[in-house]
Amino acid sequence: MRLAISATTYRMVLLLRDSHQIQSLVIVTPWWIRSQVLVHTKTPIVMDFPGGKVAFTPEIHFISESNEERVPCYRVLDDNGQQLTNSQFVPVSKEIAVKMYSDMVTLQMMDNIFYEAQRQGRLSFYATAFGEEAINIASAAALSPDDVIFPQYREPGVLLWRGFTLQEFANQCFGNKSDYGKGRQMPVHYGSNKLNYFTVSATIAYSLLTQLLPNAVGAAYSLKMDEKDACAVTFFGDGGSSEGDFHAALNFAAVMEAPVLFICRNNGWAISTPTSDQFRSDGVVVKGRAYGIRSIRVDGNDALAMYSAVHEAREMAIREHRPILIEALTYRVGHHSTSDDSTRYRSADEIEWWNKARNPLSRFRTWVESNGWWSDEAESDLRSKIKKEMLEAIRVAEKTEKPNLNHMFSDVYDVPPLNLREQELLVRQAIKSHPQDYPSDVPL
């Protein structure tokens, strides 16, 4: 290494050489009062810099854009539902395992029936979680009811696990007066204060991909300050990692040492954009290290692996006051939503292969059955019960009165401002003038 030093420093270097702390010294005398000295030291020279000591190197060395080997994916069950030899996982009781599987089946059937209702014109919109049931239910099972959830739009299974009823799901999707959002939101934009589940939002000016990530960090920091035995948990897709909110949230969480779990559902597609066009990094898991966040990659179709990873991550987050990033590898078997036809950008054979070869429900059922906790009779009874309850929930939701029109303008201001009152007046005048253009079942 070449160092530009003053004459005084030069004399100090000579003393170091004489004391054998420097092996060799080559002096180049310039016309200026400084000298350039080539110094070879026995120990690396390091610099104290914010964040820790940084070692110097005489070599021009660029950090590789990627590791030679990809980050491995943690799993417990193979594709056939058989437990891997020497697999490490958090033990699951019969009660928890049966509830996990039952809720996975319930979520799948609920999605099927609501999806068909939308295709029949009874719902305006719907988005399924086909193929991602294990991420939903297993992560919810590993959390505490006190943990605060900041969802995207494909996590209804977390609400289901916490006790949100099929009737409550139906009320929201049909937007009736029993809907907690009073009919203001699109279908599948659920929320529950009682169950610590923040309402899904899809406002245009605020990216729905990662809209709640920074909020989750703030909530986690609040839980930490209040010394609560709880953490914040936020879900997002692989496409969300391209949003600025994602990066701001990770950096914020790391610096503030907030107990928050970032759970990425890497399902291969951000609507029609494949991960190969989304990023060049080794998925999302490697992004955590760049921000100083402990991370893990998990098989998202393995319910036992997801349960164990989230359980351990939660313990670390709360005990050590740190954020954790979990990348769950899975596959979106369904269309992005009822507004999408995914066969226009991926093959039907690819979808079918994932649905059969790596189905999270059949995998987990095999393991539950191998423990003697499930049977064909139990399966038949469960599916019959769920179908009956779902059809009844839809019948009731459809017949329940819609929210009053005035709810469009309430719950934001204590006293509505003049411009909002004027908007309400204009809407009522328009309805009065053109009643045929407005739904007759909305009370005025």
TrEMBL record:
Keyword tags: Oxidoreductase
Highest taxon of the lineage: Eukaryota
Annotated Dehydrogenase E1 component domain residues: 104-404
InterPro entries listed in its UniProt record: Alpha-ketoacid_DH_E1_comp, DH_E1, THDP-binding
Protein's name in the database: Dehydrogenase E1 component domain-containing protein
